[in-house]
C-alpha cells in the first residue's frame, strides 16, 4: 500500500497529531505520513475574528504548498477568537487541500474566562494568556485552553481532530463536492 504524504502547515505536535488522527479515522485503510512545516499564516499571531482565523488556515495551506510540492494532502489549522455577546469565544478553522479539492470546517466553540479575555484584549496571544492565568508552560502544544478548562476531559487535539474530520467530508463523499 502506498503511503500518502500529508504536509501539515504547523510544527505544533498537537496540530500534527490531530491532522493525522482525523485522516486515519476517515480513511482507515490508508497509510499517512506527516511532514510538518512552519509557514506564516499571514494574519495576526492571535486572529481576532472568524474570517481572519479562516484566512490564516487558508494562507498556511497556500504557503505549505509553495514550500513542498507533490503531497497528497495539505492541512492548515488555525486557532482564533471572536467577540460574541459580550464575551470572547475561541475555536479553530481547518482547511484541507489536495491537488483538485478543498475542504474546510470549524471546530466546536467555547467561551473563555474573564481573566483570559482581558489579557487577550490587551494583545496577549491566547496560549500565553492561558499559561499566565493557569500557571502552565506552553499549553498550546498540550491540551490547550479546552484541556485546562475541562480538566483534561476534552483536549485541543480532540477538538481539532473533529474539525479535521469535517473538513475531510468532500474527500469522503466523492462526486458531491
From TrEMBL:
InterPro entries: ITPase-like_fam, Non_canon_purine_NTPase, NTPase/PRRC1, YjjX_NTPase
Catalyses which reaction(s): ITP + H2O = IDP + phosphate + H(+); XTP + H2O = XDP + phosphate + H(+)
Pfam families: NTPase_I-T
MF (Gene Ontology): hydrolase activity
Entry's EC annotation: 3.6.1.73
Cofactor note: Binds 1 divalent metal cation per subunit; can use either Mg(2+) or Mn(2+).
Top-rank lineage group of the source organism: Bacteria
Residues the record lists as binding substrate: 10-15
Domain Non-canonical purine NTP phosphatase/PRRC1 positions: 9-171
The protein's enzyme class: hydrolase
Cofactor annotation: Mg(2+); Mn(2+)
Keywords linked to the UniProt accession: Hydrolase, Magnesium, Manganese, Metal-binding, Nucleotide metabolism, Nucleotide-binding
Subunit description: Homodimer.
Annotated family: Belongs to the YjjX NTPase family.
NCBIfam families: inosine/xanthosine triphosphatase, PRK05074.1
Entry function: Phosphatase that hydrolyzes non-canonical purine nucleotides such as XTP and ITP to their respective diphosphate derivatives. Probably excludes non-canonical purines from DNA/RNA precursor pool, thus preventing their incorporation into DNA/RNA and avoiding chromosomal lesions.
Protein name in the entry: Probable inosine/xanthosine triphosphatase
Lineage start: Bacteria, Pseudomonadati, Bacteroidota, Cytophagia, Cytophagales
This protein's encoding gene: yjjX
Amino acid at each position: 500500500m502506498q503511503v500518502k504524504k500529508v504536509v501539515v502547515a504547523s510544527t505544533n505536535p498537537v496540530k500534527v497529531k490531530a491532522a493525522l488522527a482525523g485522516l486515519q479515522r476517515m480513511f482507515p485503510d490508508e497509510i499517512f505520513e506527516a511532514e510538518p512545516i512552519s509557514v506564516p499564516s499571514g494574519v495576526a499571531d492571535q486572529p481576532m475574528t472568524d474570517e481572519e482565523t479562516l484566512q490564516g488556515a487558508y494562507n498556511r495551506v497556500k504557503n505549505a504548498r509553495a514550500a513542498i510540492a507533490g503531497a497528497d494532502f495539505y492541512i492548515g489549522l488555525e486557532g482564533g477568537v471572536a467577540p460574541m455577546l459580550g464575551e470572547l469565544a475561541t475555536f479553530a478553522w481547518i482547511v484541507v487541500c489536495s491537488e483538485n479539492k478543498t475542504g474546510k470546517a470549524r471546530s466546536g466553540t467555547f467561551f473563555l474566562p474573564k481573566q483570559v479575555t482581558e489579557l487577550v484584549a490587551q494583545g496577549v496571544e491566547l496560549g500565553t494568556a492561558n499559561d499566565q492565568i493557569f500557571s502552565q508552560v506552553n499549553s498550546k502544544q498540550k491540551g490547550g485552553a479546552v484541556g485546562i478548562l475541562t480538566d483534561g476531559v476534552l483536549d485541543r487535539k480532540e477538538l481539532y481532530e473533529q474539525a479535521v474530520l469535517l473538513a475531510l467530508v468532500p474527500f469522503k463523499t466523492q462526486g458531491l463536492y
